[in-house]
Specification:
With 512 residues, this protein is α/β, with parallel strands linked by helices. The protein contains 16 helices and 14 strands.
């Protein structure tokens, strides 16, 4: 930080020398027509006009102001304070010199008074410039909101998607690309699939209707229905690589981050918690540090309802106590807590989206679920129907539910992707960080899913009924009331049949 401040001081000092010369010469010229106080003020304005013209080209980009408009307002506020200080100090100093009877000529007294005023204004200007360059204030946020409220993000900005080659991230990426947004996808490809970024738009007519119904139309986005994947730039990198992260933020103009990158196998997290804390927590901290270094203030975090642990009430609302029962859930909760601390200390704005089970395959892109190993209920069930597995296991039939099997919350991948994009829109328009649950509010039992899958696949699906697994709650269902009211989230494919039909179509012709 000391080195940065030193560099900034030298740049600002050099620029101020130019402004000082213009200031002094202008004051001498203006004094031919006006009194000393007015000529000092006009000289100051002339010097700062030159100062701002040079700053707009060289200083503001280096100090990462978000736009020239915002920079101009900040610069003007600082300059106005300096103007008042210089004028009053110069006039006051002239009166002191005149009353001191030091035997100095009037012109020399004016010059000394003027230089005294410049010295005080220089200190004010530098402190103001330092404050605006290295602190995020309520003023900066209100200015950003005012200038960007109508138009949203600039369309030449890019959205960074970590884990964007994974199941959820790739679908969000495809949807953003089709809406007209340019994206940078960063993925280590440990679990992700680069093929998911080479997607194809399957239904160009119905996707526009979906955008309208899902409230995804953006005032400054022009949908790209011809070649949406051209809006994606892929970078293979791991979030543990700080230099790679810094290079990405340095080379690309990024407006917001969608953070999906995480390991998500609950059982593995119990067996190897170090792996989860290193990847999910430490690497998230690396990302946030790079964002802070380059002045990126907005992030959408893909969290989980696993942060709640065993439910005390259903459906689970955002106010439910968070008491995760496994390292995976704890790692996600830790990141949420880090986000809150960064928001409080550095002005970060974030949205954490908590949900349980993403399901189905996209109805608009050739993107679907592909995990190795596969642990998710619907893919396991459909793989059994397609004879890729011998049988499907139902763990527990004696729960206190409508049919004795566990009840779980499923969200179609297209609806889940829409929620992430709505969260992105929300952060463009609002200064407040938020947390939202995503769910269908009712849930489906394992046996209900099984019976619906048998109906859609027209297969018996061999099933083995086994005893309960330790730690499995009877019912896990999230309430999405807040997301619907505030984000305007409107799930379209909320019924079980839509989820299973899309998933079955994908697994029959799975391309990766």
């Amino acid at each position: 930080m000391t080195k940065i401040l030193h560099s900034q001081f030298l740049r600002y000092f050099g620029l101020s020398i130019i402004a000082l010369v213009v200031n002094l010469l202008s004051r001498i010229f203006y004094e031919l027509f006006f009194g000393f106080g007015v000529s000092v003020a006009l000289g100051y304005i002339s010097g700062h006009f030159v100062n701002f013209a040079i700053s707009a080209k060289y200083i503001f980009p280096k100090d990462k102001y978000k736009s020239t408009k915002i920079a101009f307002v900040k610069f003007s506020l600082v300059a106005f304070v300096g103007l008042v200080v210089q004028t009053f100090v110069a006039v006051f100093a002239l009166r002191i010199l005149q009353g001191a009877n030091l035997g100095l000529g009037i012109e020399l007294q004016k010059l000394l008074a003027h230089i005294c005023g410049i010295g005080f204004s220089f200190i004010c200007n530098f402190l103001g410039h330092k404050f605006f360059s290295f602190r995020t204030s309520a003023l900066e946020q209100s200015l950003q909101n005012r200038f960007h409220k109508k138009g949203g993000r600039k369309m030449n900005d890019k959205i960074l998607i970590t884990g964007g080659a994974g199941y959820i991230g790739s679908c969000v990426n495809a949807m953003l690309n089709t809406l007209g947004f340019r994206t940078i996808v960063v993925d280590s490809l440990i679990y992700g699939h680069k093929e998911a970024l080479d997607f194809r738009l399957l239904d160009s007519s119905n996707i526009l209707e979906f955008f309208n119904r899902a409230n995804l139309s953006h005032p400054r986005a022009t949908p790209n229905l011809t070649n949406p994947k051209s809006n994606t730039t892929f970078i293979k990198a791991d979030l543990c690589d700080k230099e790679a992260l810094n290079a990405i933020f340095r080379e690309h103009k990024i407006s917001c981050v969608l953070h999906f990158a995480a390991f998500a196998y609950v059982g593995e997290s119990v067996e190897n918690p170090a792996k989860y804390y290193a990847n999910n927590v430490a690497n998230s901290l690396n990302l946030l540090e790079s964002m802070r270094k380059f002045g990126i203030k907005r992030i959408i975090f893909s969290s989980t309802c696993a942060t709640y642990g065993n439910p005390l009430e259903l459906p689970i609302a955002e106010s439910h106590p968070q008491n995760p029962i496994n390292p995976y859930g704890r790692s996600k909760l830790m990141v949420e807590q880090i986000l809150a601390d960064f928001a409080n200390a550095y002005g970060l704005r974030y949205i954490a989206l908590r949900y349980f089970n993403a399901a189905g395959a996209s109805n608009f892109f050739d993107i679907g679920e592909s995990h190795s190993p596969e642990t998710h209920l619907i893919p396991l069930m459909l793989q059994t129907a397609l004879k890729k597995r011998e049988c499907f296991s139902v763990f527990g039939t004696d729960y206190d539910t409508r049919d004795g099997s566990c009840v779980r919350d499923f969200i179609h991948i297209d609806d889940l992707s829409a929620a992430h994009i709505l969260a992105l829109y929300y952060l463009e328009q609002n200064l407040k960080s938020e947390v939202f649950n995503l769910g269908n509010g009712a849930g489906f039992s394992v046996i209900e899913v099984l019976e619906c899958a048998r109906k859609i696949t027209q297969c018996e699906i061999p099933t083995k009924y086994e005893s309960r697994r330790e730690g499995d709650p009877a019912e896990l269902v999230g309430s999405a009331k807040k997301a619907k009211e505030i984000l305007g989230w409107n799930p379209i494919f909320y019924d079980l049949e839509s989820i299973l039909k899309s998933a079955f179509a994908w697994h029959k012709n799975q391309r990766y």
